[in-house]
Structure formats: structure tokens, C-alpha cells
Amino acid sequence: MDSHGHLRWERLYSSYADRVFAYASRRVGTDEASDIVADTFLVAWRRIDDLPDDALPWLYAAARNVINNSRRAEIRRDALQRRLASVGATEASDDPAPEVETRADILAAMRSLPAPEREALMLIAWEDLDPRRAAAVMGCSPGTFAVRLHRGRRHLTKILSSDLIEPEASFGSTFDKAAGGES
Predict the structure, then answer these.
(1) CA–centroid distance for 91 within its chain
(2) Are 142 and 135 in contact (CB under 8 A)?
(3) Dist CA 56 CA 108 (whole Å)
(4) What is the pLDDT of residue 77?
(5) Are 77 and 33 in contact (CB under 8 A)?
(6) Helix or strand or coil: residue 91?
(7) Which of 12, 60, 71, 180 could form a disulfide with 137 if both were Cys (CB 3.0 to 4.6 A apart)?
(8) Closest CA to 106 of 59, 55, 165, 151
(9) pLDDT of 9-66, one tens digit each?
């Protein structure tokens, strides 16, 4: 890598590391987010010459791929643990979940959405991307993205208005924006 590439990577990191961390922490939690950021910027380092001028959507897409790879690895580890447990290895028991607060209810509602709809809502409401840039992150056309966003808003509104989950009005503008309201 030449000095221009090194300087560009440093600028990208200083400009976007916090935003990539926020993106990752909302998807995997703050404990794992630092690893996701490190792996994302490692990919950016290796592919610095391939990065577009507007690098944030590319970085979000790379982070999304890193998260997906991490989840696949976790699934493989879990399957191995189950196999080991079936031949006599002991598995730690899970603690029962504590009482769910409003925030957890909303996050649960988000998790119940199909992945493309959830990702569309999160890119708009939490990452504050415009639809064109969010479509680039998801690797789809702006039209396809608009459909996913519309469906996600509709499904989230339906879930949150059901008897199962009742959000408190005090939760704020983030989910008003995600559910299609004005903020």
C-alpha cells in the first residue's frame, strides 16, 4: 500500500470508526462491536483501492458481512457444543430472562421482522442514511429498498400496536422515525 492509501485509510478510520461501531453495537451488542469494527477496517485496509468515494455505505456493507460471518461461526460452534453434549459433555444452563422493559419489547419487535425489513429500518432510523445510501449498503436498488422500508414500517407498526407489545410514548423519536412517523 502506498502512502496515499495509508492516509486514506487513516482518514476513513478517524471519520467513520464511531459510526461503524454504533452500527455494529446495535446489531451484536457493545461487547462484540469492537471486534466487528476491527475486522471491518481490516477489510477496508486490504481493499483500500477498491473503496468508493462515499465509503460509509461500503463500510456498513462490510460490517454487515463481518457480522454475518461471525453469526455463521457462532452457529457452527453451537452445533459442535450440542454434538459434544450428546456424547456426555455438559452444557451450561441458560438463566431465565428477566422481566422485559419497553426497550426490550421494541427490540424484540424489531427482531421479529424479516431480516431485510429490519435492516432497512435500522439503516434509516439508527444509522441516519438516506434511502439511496442505505440501498447501497444492502446491495439492492433504491426501489427494492423502498419496498423493504415500507413493509418494515408497516410490520413494525402492526407488531407494536398489538396486545403483545405496548411501547411507552416516552421511548422517543428513533422509533417514531422507524415506524414511519415524523420526528
Answers:
(1) 29
(2) yes
(3) 27
(4) 79
(5) no
(6) coil
(7) 60
(8) 165
(9) 999 999 999 999 999 999 999 999 999 999 999 999 999 999 999 999 999 999 999 9
**CB contact set of 101 (below 8 Å; sequence gap of 6+):** none
Question: Which one-letter amino acid corresponds to residue 146?
Answer: A
- The grid cell for 41 is 477496517
* Amino acid symbol at 27: R
Residue among 81, 80, 104 nearest 93 (CA): 81
Return the pLDDT at 76.
Answer: 81
Backbone dihedral region of 29: left (phi > 0), alpha (psi from -120 to 50 degrees) or beta? left
Residue 100 main-chain phi, psi, to 5 deg: -85, 130
d(CA 64, CA 23): 9
